[in-house]
């Protein structure tokens, strides 16, 4: 059985990643983003998926401001989460 491929525009990916941040947690959203864009260059602000990356960074900053730097983020179950 073939996997279904989903294609997102950069703005749709940003909304999708932000929604995952809100519902599943920041770490799960980062894993999802890394699956979509495994070789993303964080320094290239002209990259097509920069809005999605910026959305994750904004959520991390909000979390750190609310709970303090280095606070452990809770992991919520999701199909993107890798098990060890």
Structural class: mainly alpha
Order of helices and strands: HHH
Low-confidence runs (pLDDT<50, min 5 residues)?
77-84
Largest sheet: none
* Topology, number of strands: 0
Count of helices?
Answer: 3
Question: What's the helical proportion of residues?
Answer: 40-55%
Whole-number average pLDDT? 79
N→C terminal distance: 25 Å
Strand content: under 5%
Shape: globular
The radius of gyration over CA amounts to 13 Å
What does this structure look like?
The structure is a single chain. By secondary structure, the chain is an all-alpha fold. It has a domain at 10-67. It has helices spanning 10-23, 26-36, 50-67. The longest helix has 18 residues, at 50-67. The protein starts with 9 loop residues before the first helix and ends in a 17-residue tail after the last helix.
Secondary structure blueprint with pairings:
Blueprint: H1 10-23, H2 26-36, H3 50-67
Which key phrases capture this entry?
84 residues; mainly alpha; single chain; disordered C terminus
Short description:
With 84 residues, the protein is mostly helical.
């Amino acid at each position: 059985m073939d996997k279904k491929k989903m294609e997102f525009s950069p703005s749709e990916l940003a909304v999708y990643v932000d929604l995952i941040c809100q519902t599943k947690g920041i770490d799960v959203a980062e894993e999802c983003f890394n699956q979509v864009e495994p070789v993303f260059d964080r320094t290239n602000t002209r990259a097509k998926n920069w809005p999605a990356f910026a959305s994750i960074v904004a959520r991390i900053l909000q979390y750190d401001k609310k709970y303090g730097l280095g606070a452990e983020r809770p992991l919520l179950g999701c199909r993107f989460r890798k098990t060890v």
